[in-house]
Amino acid sequence: MLNKSQIRTVLDTMAEMFPEAECELTHRNPLELTIAVVLSAQATDALVNKVTPQLFEKYQSPEDYVHVPLEELEKDIRSIGLFRSKAKNIQKLCSSLIDQYDGQVPQERDKLMQLAGVGRKTANVVASVAFNEPAIAVDTHVERVSKRLGLCRWKDSVLEVEKTLMKKIPKEEWSDTHHRMIFFGRYHCKSQKPKCGECPLLELCREGKKRMKNA
Question: Domains in the chain, ordered, with CATH?
Answer without folding.
Answer: 4-21+136-214 (1.10.1670.10), 30-131 (1.10.340.30)
